[in-house]
Queue: 2 jobs
Job 1
Amino acid sequence: MQPIQLVRKHISLEISEQFEQFVGFNLGHLSFGHRRFDHAMTEIAKLHHAQKTYNLGGGILLTGPSGTGKTTLINNYAKHFPVYRDGNKTIAPVLLITLPSSATANGLLTAIYDALGYPSPPRTELADKTSKIIKLLKLYGVELILIDESQHAYYSRSLPEFRQLIDTLKNILTLSKVACVLVGLPEVEDVVFSNEQVARRHAIRLELSKFSYEFEADFKEFRAILKQYQTELPKQPDIPLHEANLARRFLIASDGILDYLSRILSKSVEIAGLAGLSQLDLTVYSGAFREVVWQSAPDKLNPFHPESPLRRLDKAGEPFYPWHLKHAIGSPLARRNLIMPTGESHGT
């Protein structure tokens, strides 16, 4: 049985012959260039070029809130440099790894082994594993390592594990002379600042921030992205998505986060398609906002309600409330004030 058969069996609405093209419609695979994206891609390419030219390593710290496109960006970069064969050798110029949630030195090494397609040696001392990794990076011609979810180090279970992880990373980068981009949520800054050598190596700091309606350039760029999204929709809106008032509603509904924007538009297409509507409108967007952002939104706080005050939804109980400023986060290590969630590092 195919999943779509179950959808057809259990859906309660009358459906059109074309309903299958709307079920689970998703724009998440799309990425559109914008200033932040282009700047980050350029800086990573410059770092990569410098490593190839001077073999001095170096690094970048790329941060930003969840959903702003960090993973999309590094996946996009890595696709330009696929693994290839050079005679009998396998060459992997760019290595993309994800730091495991159980952030330990062994977890980091295993992730690198996996990315290289090389079996991790069992029951081997950490120093031997590290030495082997350094040799493999040189053997595979690795020039650049992109480490996603680097903030997981922030949640190390103990200070010794945290220090061992950071020291292992430092040793790998220093001895292999591979360039590195650490990618993650803002907490990763505290991880980097905990080690002077790692901080110095990743002196270039980039941020993929949210789009803000407080800056005209941001709003103009956000409208341009909406215009690009509209060209990908199988159902068109009754008002162009980039129309100023409607664009402001989308900006508030997504809080300037492109992942939320993509989800709202995707769900809008599905809702309209299953309902047999010919166009997307405020009622459709309103329903999509409730489904993917804020299920219990009061009508007038729904950005697509005609009487919405169109303000940022960042008060207590609202979807974009900055909870991390009020509530302790992190592992027991972080909560003991060795690393503070506000970005301030504290020693003991």
Job 2
Amino acid sequence: MKKILFLTGTRADFGKIKSLISVLDTHKNFEVFVFVTGMHLQKEYGYTVIEIENCKFKNVHTFENHTHETTMDLTLAKTIEGFSSYCKTISPDLIVVHGDRVETLAGAIVGSLNNILVAHIEGGEISGTVDELIRHSVSKLSHIHFVSNKEAGKRLLQMGEMESTIFTIGSPDIDIMFSNVLPTLETVKKYYQIDFDKFGIVMFHPVTTEVNEMKQYTTNFVEALLSDNKNYIVIYPNNDLGSKYIIDSYQKLKNNTRFRIFPSLRFEYFLTLLKNAQFIIGNSSAGIREAPYYGIPIINIGTRQLNRAVHADIINVDYSNEEIAKALQNITNHQVQKTDTDFGSGNSASLFLETLLDANLWEINHQKQFLGLD
């Protein structure tokens, strides 16, 4: 029985890996462990560890790594210390990390420096911010790569990764998007006390490389929302550097009946709301990944997702009040072509399981090699 250790630090990455954890947790060949840290344990962001506990996974371990939003390096160091200690306790055969968070980097560092195989979910992607630097660093520290599409796989080859270690499984959250576990819209609206018939979704995150401008960017964004006449479901940002500016600006929306503000939403509940939204606005990857699958119009603000926003139907605007307001005026008339191929077909978990059941995977050399391009 192989011991598989998943690491999760945010509601977003848990949504991505939930189906992967689930498919292994009940399988006789694997013993699954989940290391929960980061935003999951912060009450300000919804204390989303509760969502993980509700999944009833067999082995869940929590660790508080938060220091302060301005000390990402110290948060990294603290996470390394806690994760390393836990690894020494359970001796995993494989560590699974996702994406481009500080916690992800900590997991890859601990695994690679302790001679433990590391698998990276959704490496090889581009975004243009410090997140991209972390993502590529994690890829170089990882032995196995589960990518969302062939383009991401090609980028890993450019980075010197071996083709035999790259597996295209799609984006795992697509599994949940089209599953039969999504609640009805009526259930979600009742649970969160939402009385809007029509609404847009707001998800706006800080850009760490533009932190000095984030206060002004957020002010412009909130002013554009207030000058509009639509209803909005607003979800708090992640806890990256600059998030305080966004949360503080959202105080201006709190007494306005057109806005319902939440620190976090259950992932399946969020998907139901997204599926039934008029549009999504902000700079979240949900506008690049999930929204096109549901045919939902997208207004992408600024640079956070710019290099990933290749879908033709995405409306890209800068941070100015004027551009955001102009996009909002016409967004409900914007027609979107649904996509079903960019990030997989909803079978990521089965492809992931199939790969882990292949004995050849466990023969991958812990000592990585750099493969040069011809």
